[in-house]
Amino acid sequence: MQLLNWLGYGTDPELPLHLVYNPVGAFLPPPQVELETDYKRELKKHFGIVFNNLYTITNLPIGRFASYLRHNNKLEEYMELLIRAFNPATIEGLMCRNTISVGWRGEVYDCDFNQQLRMQWFRNGESERLFLWDIDPGSLEGREIMTGNHCFGCTAGAGSSCGGAIV
Ligand code: SF4
C-alpha cells in the first residue's frame, strides 16, 4: 500500500484506492463508517498510508467459508445470526437488483455468489442454460432473482454488496 501511495493511488483523484474489510470469523462486520475512520487513523499514524474508502463485506456461508464453519460446527449458529439480523431496508440496494455476473464462458448469473454456487440462469424448466448472447436486455426488468439461504448474508445488519454496506 505504501508503494501504491507512492505511485499516486489514494492521493491522486484519478487513482482512487479503496479497501475491503471481511470479518475473519463467524460474525458481522462492524459499522462501515466507524471502521473506515479507525483504519484511516491507524494506517496513517503507523505506516503513513492513506486511502479513499473502506467497504465492509459480510462473509456469505458458501465455498471455503462454509467449509470452515462446518468444520468448526458453526454453520447453524452463523445462519441463525444472519437470519436474526435480517434487515428489510437492505432489499432495495442489493446488487443483484441492478447488476449481473457473467462467467468466463458467457454464462449468466444474478451475482458472483450465485456464480460460485453454479446457479446459472435458465429457461424451460432448467433444460436450457442461458448465456450472455441469449439475453434480451429489454426482457430483464422484473426478472425473478434466483435466491437461496446464502442471500441472508447480503440482507443482514447494514447489508452487503460489491459497494460495501447498503444502509
Ligand atoms: S447472494 Fe442473493 S441477495 Fe446476495 S446478491 Fe446474490 S442473489 Fe442477491
Structure description:
It is a single chain. This protein is an alpha+beta fold and 167 residues long. 28% of the residues lie in helices and 10% in strands. The chain contains 5 helices and 6 strands. The strands form 3 sheets. The chain has a two-stranded parallel ribbon with strand order 1-2. The chain has a two-stranded antiparallel ribbon with strand order 3-4. A two-stranded antiparallel ribbon has the order 5-6. Strand 3 (101-102) and strand 4 form a beta hairpin. Iron/sulfur cluster (SF4) is lined by residues 94-96, 110-111, 113-114, 145, 147, 150-151, 154.
Provide key terms for this protein.
two-stranded antiparallel sheet; alpha+beta; two-stranded parallel ribbon; binds iron/sulfur cluster; globular; about 10% strand; about 170 residues; 5 helices
The bound ligands are:
iron/sulfur cluster
Count the beta strands. 6
In angstroms, what separates the terminal alpha carbons?
A: 28 Å
- Percent of residues in beta strands? 5-15%
Give the rounded overall mean pLDDT. 96
Summarize the biggest pleated sheet. 2 strands, parallel
Tally of DSSP helical segments: 5
State the shape.
globular
Low-confidence region ranges: none
List SSEs in N-to-C order. HEHEHHEEHEE
Helix content: 25-40%
Q: Give the helix/strand class.
A: alpha+beta
Strand order of the largest sheet: 1-2
The assembly state of the depicted protein chains is: single chain
Radius of gyration: 19 Å
